Amino acid sequence: MLFVFNILFVIIAIAMIALVLMQRGAGASAGSGFGGGASATVFGARGSSNFLSKATKWLAISFFSITLFMAWYAMHRANPNALDMDLGVMGAQQQAPAVPAVPQGDAAVPAAPAVSGAVPQAPADAATVPSAPAQEPAPQAPQTE
After folding, report:
1. Helices 49-78 & 2-22, crossing angle to 10 degrees?
2. What's residue 108's pLDDT?
3. 86 and 25 in contact (C-beta within 8 Å)?
4. What pLDDT, in 10s, does the model give residues 31-52?
């Protein structure tokens, strides 16, 4: 059934494109002074605007109705329980986990275990720390009077 609607959908889309391209634009009346007005007699004395605009309107209505029906049909055919799915983390029914209570008796933070050799030790006295190199004062420019 969806295959038939797909074929009908493509045919209506192509017909709608053809009808839109056959219609006159807003500036088409400017060319009628040069002999372009004779082609309007193919669709009758009133011109093509009435027939083409009505046909385009009904093709557009059928195009959108078939589109909505195919979307509805595909959604309900793929998963009939689509509205009852478990959304997991994105579900609105989720509760935040409770924060564990801090024990009242021993609230001290345990010390981290000592790791030997992983962290270098800082020097113990100031004599082993290298000092910054001494900078010479900048030369002064001679003053002129």
Report:
1. 160
2. 66
3. no
4. 555 555 555 555 555 555 688 8
